[in-house]
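Standup, Tuesday
Yesterday: got the pipeline producing structure tokens again.
Today: sanity-check two examples.
Blockers: none.

Example 1:
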Amino acid sequence: DLALPPTCPALGLYGDYSWMNASFALYTLIEISDERIQEIANALDAEWYEGQGNQGSHLVRVAPSHNFANKKLSDILEAHVKLDKVAPGQSKSQYGALDLEWYPTAFIVVTAEDVDDRGLLFVFVVDEGEDDDEIAECKMDMFFFRQKDANSMLSTLAYDDD
């Protein structure tokens, strides 16, 4: 079941944080091993991490609670809302904001074993708030993508949030 609520304002509360080292959380709706989901995360992250000189933050990481086999996408959304997104032990960044460990407004879901044929789902909120004082509507949206397109898509989003 890939149904989602039309909005999720709880994911739009992180505008005053530093997103520079945040990773996209990877979850699964299918029964796969921990090793397999880590392989998928590594494949999604490989080109980005190599481009960073194999150091620094990862673009994609397996979420701490990632296995939602035989559950609904809305269960993952609920878990992502509850996920502590602030990096542990962080003081304010050089920009005066706390560092985020996880992107709050988007995540990736494995929906099929074949991740090159509609097996990866990108779920995100569209923040339509006009300024920081306005509570964003945070409309939910999603689309399928192929593993081979991950780096260009996700790195564009990451650079856009810096």
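Example 2:
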Amino acid sequence: MEGLWPWVLILVCLPGLILGAPSASHCTGACGTRFSEDLTPEETQTSWDKDIPAINQGLIPEESPESSFLLEGDILRPSPFRLFSAASSKWPKNGGVVEVPFLLSGKYDKPSRQVILEAFAEFERSTCIRFVAYNGQRDFISIIPMSGCFSSIGRSGGMQVVSLGPSCLQRGPGIVLHELMHVLGFWHEHSRADRDRYIRVNWNEILPGFEMNFIKSRSSNMLVPYDYSSVMHYGRLAFSRRGLPTITPLWATSVHIGQRWNLSSSDIARVLRFYDCSPSGHEPSGKEKKQPKNHFKCQNIKTSFSTLLSSIQQCSKS
């Protein structure tokens, strides 16, 4: 663990160095969420409770959690050089399409890469977000298999690290979707300013020193009603000190929270509203605008992942 900290601090600071009250969702369960056919409802919630905070727990010094490099369990603390980086946390939109350049570590094996590709493809199917291969862009994300799941909030400028360790990829693309939502500028659902109307935080059950992970904030999540089924919601046992719930839903005590299967309908809606776009990549006003070319070409590395998946076989034959 001691050997990891210097690298973590470098990665947190590197981006700056490079650049010098709405009603609740009508669905209070896991609306629009795909459940595993192999799990009972009880097993499903148990599976969801083994979530990101539990995976990252070993990275946080128990004796002084306030000194952790992570906020709310998986958000990198802003770089002290942030003022000299990107002026906006939003990724730029061009012709109705939002491109997020990425570098994917060569240390991932084929199954792990496929899980990440699935997450990219889900964003492309449902939103205007297009993850494109890095080709010299100034701002980009670097996805690497560190021992944890974490990322920054929004576009921080220059290279920004997204850690997706092996444990983050074992149950499908859900955790990848969660971290990429952070990359796009979204915070956790349980930390919304209006959360007290929908959940109860059981402060006495939180690990001592980790209460700061439940502080409320007014964020971009407020663009849509509160959603228990959001991929950005933590499970019941987040930062639990003795295996009892730290988060209790108020509308229905048996509702499932903390799903890590897919983007909920509210997750999709908040992306579209935050970036003022449509899934097709056209402007919401209906006015046709010329879109950036994303068609796959063997000689052009800059391409969206759904196009890449459908064209890679043809390219390999040419």
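Quick observation on example 2: Confidence is low (pLDDT under 50) at residues 4-45, 60-64, 80-87, 287-318. Strands lie at 70-71, 75-76, 93-94, 97-104, 129-133, 140-144, 149-150, 159-164, 199-201, 247-249.
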